[in-house]
Amino acid sequence: MMRSMPATDLKPAFYGETLASLTEHLAERGEKPFRAKQILDWVYKKRVDDPAAMTNLSASLREWLAATFDFTPLRPILTKSASDVTDKILSRLQDGSLIETVIIRAPQEGVGQDRSRKTICISTQVGCAYGCRFCASGLAGWKRDLTTGEIVAQLMAVCRQEDAHTPRAREELASFDNIVVMGMGEPLANYDSLLAALGILNAEWGLGFGARRITISTSGLAPQIMRLAEEPMGFRLAISLHGATDEVRTQIMPVNRKYPLAELLPAARAFAEKHGRMLTLEFILINDVNDSLEQARALVDIARNLHAHVNLIPYNTVQGLDWKRPNVKRQEAFARVLRDARVSVTLRREKGHDINAACGQLRLQHEEDGAVAPVPANRR
Ligand code: SAH
Ligand code: SF4
């Protein structure tokens, strides 16, 4: 598949550059190699996005930077908060496309509000080609892949937004505990751009964010899971299972026709064995679709075989779709089958934690309604 790029007359996002590529650009201009590190320090350590403010660089270098790269390829246009636990940020890209990024704050017991665990959920594509029947991101189809620079820019935009109302966060690099690649799009269908972006987030000259604190969620692209298993950076993996038999999974996830369980599960196993780390199986509970006790029992077999943790997520209603979550009794009965079989399982309860459903919905709503009243970023 050809990689889709934004219109060519636009400047490339700065955030797609690496220490090596920037050093090369600078060498072409006759600049010293150490300038690359200085520029990256401004961007990733000091979080400055205006070359004019990079005061240890010459005026001509600052001008060249501003003329060559876009330092704001993504502009947050709307922030929506749910019960002070999640912030969904809708952003506009250079070509007008809309994407979502989500911050989830989970308070830590016995620790002040400031030290709540923060997770950021990033998107990798505009829309999604995989068309899972229950998902808002898949509804309007796939528009394009995000570039490496756009993926990194999401993180930086959110960091800056956080800095604006928690000035002390500036001292704590990135100030996020975890990154989950669970936003809009299928991450492993934009493999190269995603891996390059995660490399920049991970790099010592970049955000210095540990690979073990990054989780990639996939609808189950078996060959790419095998490829990911070979990567030197040890990311965590979550698999959106949502059906414990081919019959049920195919009904709601067309991708299961291409990679049925007989192909997906061995790939997941290979990944887990290679990394020696537990993977997560995500299972949305949808009323009368995949929430029977037979499904729970089939899920027990899969989870045991993979030594996987199961994350049960009561379905979040999507505007325009008829699916519903089962009632709490049914959710608990399902979870009990797993627990009784000693499978490690969590059942999401708190509304604000329903981050998985978050991405894609705000964009959908925004595009359908035309506009949603913006909430100022400093609302808290
Ligand atoms: N494409 C990847 C990552 C993005 S979706 C994937 O499918 O894994 C992130 C998670 O949100 C997936 O597990 C997805 O199935 C789940 N999800 C999508 N719509 C949802 C909804 N309405 N309610 C709950 N979870 C949903
Ligand atoms: Fe795409 Fe994931 Fe939504 Fe399926 S669940 S349509 S793969 S974003």
Describe the structure.
The protein has 380 residues and is an alpha/beta fold. The chain has two domains: 14-68, DNA polymerase, domain 1 (Orthogonal Bundle), CATH 1.10.150.530; 74-379, Aldolase class I (TIM Barrel, Alpha-Beta Barrel). 37% of the residues lie in helices and 18% in strands. It contains 14 helices and twelve strands. A ten-stranded mixed beta sheet has the order 1-2-3-4-7-8-9-10-11-12. Strands 5-6 form a two-stranded antiparallel ribbon. β11, α12 and β12 (345-347) form a beta-alpha-beta unit. α1 crosses α2 and α7 packs parallel to α10. It is elongated and about 70 Å long. The N and C termini lie far apart (44 Å). Mean pLDDT is 87; it is low at 1-6, 352-358 and 369-380. The structure holds S-adenosyl-L-homocysteine and iron/sulfur cluster.
CATH topology of the largest domain: TIM Barrel
CATH architecture of the largest domain: Alpha-Beta Barrel
Question: What's the tally of helices?
Answer: 14
State the helicity in percent bands.
25-40%
Strand content: 15-25%
- What is the end-to-end distance? 44 Å
Rg of Cα set: 21 Å
Number of domains: 2
Shape: elongated
Strand order of the largest sheet: 1-2-3-4-7-8-9-10-11-12
Query: Segments where pLDDT lies below 50 for 5+ residues?
Result: 1-6, 352-358, 369-380
Q: Biggest sheet: strands, sense, closure?
A: 10 strands, mixed
Instruction: Give the SSE order as H and E letters.
Output: HHHEEEEEHEHEHEHEHHHEHEHEHH
**Structural class of the helix and strand makeup?**
alpha/beta
Say which CATH homologous superfamily of the largest domain is assigned. Answer: Aldolase class I
Name the ligand types.
S-adenosyl-L-homocysteine, iron/sulfur cluster
Q: Class of the largest domain, according to the CATH hierarchy?
A: Alpha Beta
- Mean pLDDT across residues: 87
